[in-house]
Structure formats: structure tokens, C-alpha cells
Amino acid sequence: MSAGDTASDGGLALSPITTDTVRELLSDRRVFPAVPAELDEDAELVLDSLGLVWLLHVVEERYGLVVEPSDEDVVGLTSLRRLTAYLRAAQTDRRRQRATEGGGDER
What we know:
It contains four helices and two strands. It starts with a strand and ends in a 6-residue tail after the last helix.
């Protein structure tokens, strides 16, 4: 898993990525028409490549978190719970990296 930061946010996301925030990101029916409005955390989730690219773009815009999942990572993003865990782990890794570099606090 590779994560970075953007110049516009100073390197740290403002708030933690939660299941509810990922559910909200998946609620855009124009991008994710097959995702049910009341998506259960463990329901099967199938994201096409365009949807995944859009989702990661929005995560970068909102949280300043650049995530570049490997093919193995993508195969494992099969539920809301797993997708959220992946993004939170990337966010946590980035915060630890920034704290180690002396570039910020470990929120």
C-alpha cells in the first residue's frame, strides 16, 4: 500500500475516514448505480475500475490522501468494511510516516 499527501493540505487529513464517510462517497448514483442506498458493511461490493479511480480521487480531494492500491489490494476491496479498513490503514500509515519525519502530529 502506498500513500502520500498533497500540497494543498499540508500532508494530513482533517478527519479520520470512517465507514459512514466511505458509504457517503459510494452514494453517488451517477458513479455507483448498483450500490444500494443502505449498504451493509459486509455486503458484497464490486467496484469497476472507473468507480475505483473516482473514489480514490475524491479521497485525495477530501482527505489529502493519495492511495495507490496494488492489484492484490483491489481484489480484496469486496465490502464496505474492507474498503474502509484499507483506507483507514493508508491514512494511519501516512500519519505515522509524517510523525516520524517530524512533519506533524500523530492524530
